[in-house]
Design brief:
Elements (H helix, E strand, L loop, with lengths): L1 E5 L10 E6 L11 H6 L9 E5 L8 E6 L8 H16 L5 E5 L7 H15 L16 E5 L6 H21 L8 H15 L2 E5 L1 H7 L2 H7 L7 E7 L9 E6 L1 E5 L19 H16 L4 E11 L10 E4 L5 E4 L6 H14 L4 E6 L4 H6 L4 E5 L2 H14 L3 E3 L17 E2 L7 H13 L4 E5 L5 E2 L9 E2 L4 H9 L4
Length: about 475
């Protein structure tokens, strides 16, 4: 999709279709729409879409009236959804060149970025492996803006939107195509193109470092594990801050010996969504260049029930020396993250954020609308929440009280990898806290929000790319 800015009135922009936001309670008379408002055919309700042909006063062949809802509730997140929904509506009709009329009331940088992000996200389809020749996409997208100086905001929207789609495409790869080694190759290529540092630790290197928790998960698969490390280091970095982004990279999760039910297991290719988000976020960070140093750590494994697979009851030793009783081999994500968090601390990270499709329990608690957020201190919680709210990625704080550690008691090791039936998302976070130790840390459980089982008007079915936008905003807005 080619993106341009047209610094002229929207009616003068030539396009196959012009998207015009309209709002509840405002009878918009532009482009011959007055009669439609008066008759009630158009009300401006959220994501209400009405296509007009050969509308008066406009050079575009068509005008799409896109409902924004109540103007007092309209924000950048709503703008992103509106733009995505409009693009998906138009491309389904084989329309190729689109313009967007940026309303003067909602014409600031944040709204301009959101328009571009929404268009890029809406144009994405998870159809890489379809061989039909009827795939549809938007070729050109122009922002018609009377407000000058929006080029930087538009470029930011492009960078972040493309990073999110990069992540979505990675998450959507089947496990026979995206093994841990293949995921490392993707990271290396991206790093070389973006000017990032990249190193990949193999099994021997991880054994020397004592990553027994990670390697225990990997031993049931013929596919070798890796630890991907990406680094962004600005020339004028604030020496006191080194943000570490840690993402779960289980390229396929059978559950191991504690095998999952067959129904829905095909979706377990998405169990590396947290790791993919870290790689995607680093892609955007490299281009946007925040003032702080940022590193990403992505432990990648397959969790398979092979003849060498770890068993329930096995005891492994993590990199920080703690022993772990593996009560359930399907609680593998926290095991690989344990060693990754320790390694990030050893590499000098002063603040940590991890993201993982970690528990079904968080979906029971919050559904598919909010990611679960756990933080070791109020400062980190507030930083991440502020970034998520600014980007429209919904997150909800959950408790991280020390009493929950009682659920993880083991008679045979320092800690068990699962508790009982209750508070599963909380006990998973409590487990990880043992390895973040005293470093300011936030854990994002994205099991319910990293994947859409059904398409939305503004997003295709499949990976969402969450929490790429939050992570990028966190790095860009960091203040000491």
């Amino acid at each position: 999709m080619q993106i341009t800015v047209e610094p002229k009135p929207a009616g003068q922009v030539e396009a196959d279709a012009l998207i015009v936001p309209v709002f509840e309670g405002r009878k918009d008379a532009r482009f011959g729409a007055a009669d439609l408002f008066n008759s009630g055919e158009v009300a401006g309700k959220p994501l209400e879409l009405t296509l007009l042909h050969h509308a008066p006063g406009v050079r575009a062949t068509r005008v799409l009236l896109a409902g924004g809802g109540k103007p007092e509730k309209f924000d950048a997140a709503e703008m992103r959804r509106l733009s995505g929904a409009a693009v998906r509506f138009l491309k389904a009709k084989s329309i190729k060149n689109v313009a967007f009329a940026l309303d003067p009331e909602f014409g600031g940088d944040g709204y301009a970025s959101a328009v571009i992000e929404g268009a890029i996200l809406g144009d994405f389809e998870p159809d890489r492996y379809k061989t039909s020749d009827d795939k549809k996409s938007i070729d050109g997208f122009a922002l018609a803006a009377g407000t000058p100086g929006l080029d930087t905001a538009v470029e930011r929207g492009r960078i972040v939107g493309e990073a999110q789609n990069f992540t979505r495409d990675l998450v959507n790869q089947p496990a026979n195509r995206l093994t841990p080694l293949a995921m490392a190759d993707v990271a290396r290529k991206m790093a070389a193109e973006s000017g990032l540092e990249c190193e990949v630790l193999d099994r021997d290197e991880m054994e020397k470092l004592g990553m027994g928790a990670l390697l225990g998960v990997a031993q049931g698969s013929a596919e070798p594990p890796v630890m991907i490390v990406l680094g962004y280091r600005p020339a004028d970095a604030r020496a006191s801050v080194h943000l570490g982004l840690v993402g779960k990279g289980v390229t396929f999760d059978t559950g191991g010996i504690s095998i999952k039910p067959a129904d829905g297991m095909e979706k377990m290719k998405y169990d590396m969504a947290g790791g993919a988000a870290m790689i995607g976020a680093m892609r955007a960070i490299a281009q946007l260049r925040p003032a702080i140093r940022v590193s990403a750590f992505v432990p990648c494994v397959e969790n398979m029930p092979g003849s060498r697979a770890q068993r329930p009851g096995d005891i492994v030793t993590a990199m920080n020396g703690k022993t772990i009783e593996v009560v359930n081999t399907d609680a593998e994500g926290r095991l690989i993250l344990a060693d990754a968090l320790t390694y990030a601390r050893r590499r000098g990270c002063t603040h940590l954020v991890d993201a993982a499709t970690l528990t079904g329990a968080v979906v029971v608690a919050l559904g598919h609308l909010n990611a679960g957020l756990f933080a070791s201190e109020d400062g980190m919680r507030d930083r991440v929440l502020a970034a998520s709210r600014a980007e429209g990625e919904r997150m909800w704080p959950l408790p991280l009280e020390e009493d929950y550690k009682e659920y993880l008691k083991s008679s045979f090791a320092d800690i068990a990898n699962v508790g009982g039936r209750w508070g599963g998302a909380v006990t998973a976070a409590i487990f990880l806290k043992e390895f973040a130790e005293d470093t300011p840390w936030t854990h994002l459980d994205i099991a319910g929000t990293a994947w859409l089982d059904e398409s939305k008007p503004y997003l295709a079915k499949g990976p969402t790319g969450l929490p790429v936008r939050t992570l990028v905003r966190l790095a860009m807005d960091w203040k000491d």
